[in-house]
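Hi all, long-time lurker, first post. I run a small reading group and we've been trying to get comfortable going from sequence to structure in the token notation. Rather than ask abstract questions, I figured I'd post a concrete chain and ask someone more experienced to write out its structure so we can walk through it together at our next meeting. Sequence below, copied exactly:
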Amino acid sequence: MSERKNVGKSLLEELPGIVAAGKRQAAHILEQLEGRNRVTLQTRELVVPSKDTSARDLFRQPLQAGGDIAADVDQPSRLIYGDNLLAMAALLAGDEDTPSLRGKIDLIYIDPPFDSKADYRSQITLPGTTIDQKPTVLEQFAYSDTWADGTASYLAMITPRLVLMRELLADTGSIFVHLDWHVGHYVKIVLDEIFGRDNFSNDIIWWYYNKMQGNINTFPRNHDFIMFYRKSKKFTFNPQKEKRDKPIRQIKRVWSSEKKAIVNAKDENGKVIYVDSTHRTVDDVWRLSMLQPADKTENLRFNTQKPETLLERIISATTNEGDLVADFFIGSGTTAAVAERLGRKWVASDLGKPAAMVTRKRLIDQDAKPFLYQAIGDYQVEQARSTLGRSFRVGDLAKVVLDLFGALPLPPEDNVNGSLGRLPNTRTLVMADSPSRLTTVSTLRRAQGYRDSKLGGFDKVIVLGWNFSAGIGQDIAALNDDRLEVLVIPPDLLDRLKKKGADKLSREVRFSSLQYLDAGVLHRKQVSDGEELAVDLRNYVLLSPEAINLDDKNRDALQKVMNEQPLALIEYWAVDPDYDGEVFRSVWQDYRGNTENDDDPLRVVTTAHLELPVKDGARRVCVRAVDVFGFESEVVVDDVEVTR
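-- Answer (accepted) --
Happy to help. Here is the structure in token form:
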């Protein structure tokens, strides 16, 4: 990979232009906050941590069915899956349920990727095999954009994000940017420009003393550095102490009577007082060990995971209990986990699905307060605006999708919003849905109507969708129509269009089938002090393995598990016993690795037993599952009555 496309200029010469472009990009985002095209967040789950155990007090915090989020939890913390640039735009904009966080965050810590050659693939252990998964296509494109031109494109990525972070910070807030020798010295210049040189506080050396050996030509590299900036002169800071290896004898120091200076303390006879000092004030060199492989309690085996002691020091030093902490490159969720433990609220965001999944499980495992799991509301729309312009027309995008699928557009008079086409030399209709809405059962029924009425009728209709209602698999099964097929438009399609253009993509694009969860209610019955609800997982059909970034060997291993043990693919599942059709409130969860009930780290339990308060009338029960690759599916069971 070449370091820069513009080989005629040095990076130092390019830097002013990079920073100016990043500031313009951020300014454009800020201008959009009040408009109808503002970015929004979609709440996927209100997580009320109550992991599956053998205890019978799982429903510890009854929630009001049909009530809003604010009635259930006062300003909950938030875990956001998606591009952090869009996440920050949504946080700045706010919405009808949550106010803008502009100027509200007390501390931001970020640990962005800083090695262009790092390998972020993950290993997924399944019964009898280990799948070696490369990053998802969305993650790959984000990462390749970050390093396309080496350090220059990395700075182009980080600059607008730092500008938005400054907008989110409270006037008394601070930001810590964790880097190493790869890009840190360049980012320091960017931080000086955005936050001001006078607001630089410390260049903290994290010395992890692992006794690493250098090669014959270098000293061992045993530290990272963390740049600490404040937003203004008035900022929160709590000096930290650490225990000495052994007490030392030193002069006691106190304020003078006039409070003008620190002076030596003396007794009534005028003798200097000596004390045994057991602690020292923490300076800017932090001697904290990295996570060790033998650490079975904290080490989640997540690449780039940082120790909790590091975040505990940062959060304790620059926030107080009840303050708001944010991390926009969340990784394994260490910032959120420590903030939760120290009584702070938090916002955590990451583009990586594994990061979001690991963080959610980690917070459930530590019995966190209820928190929201959110995603970018209209991710594909935002990407379409980026690729096709802010005023793009849905019909233009539908034409591109139909063309990539190999379909010819219907005549204009029969073509609804440009969304309909037909496969050549067949009686097959193709409908490309809009990225600005969910593909639901109503969409499918509309497609069936087009199939039967357009141009004298077709033998079959194929629906191509971007975003699907979580229970769409259940809806497809209920329609039981072998003349209807539903396929997923690749989520990275717009990124790929932007990079390569439609002509070069035509042979590369794969439209995959949907995943499908089969679950049901075993019973709902009265018990002495309430109700018991039992919910059963029955089957899981993964979407087409071709959509997952695997080589042939790993895909064959996955196919074997799919055929023999489909429920072993479930990473996490949760139950909402009073689903209102809008916000999924999970009050029972189980996940792989939770062995308190079944002693099996590779499988979830397949039956949930919930102890609930008595409710008159029927229940609407929602079951949601996430597989090991991060794909979600859902089943809703209506009209569940009490059995005697």
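A couple of things your group might point at:
The two ends are 69 Å apart (CA to CA).
Residues 93 and 289 are 39 Å apart (CA to CA).
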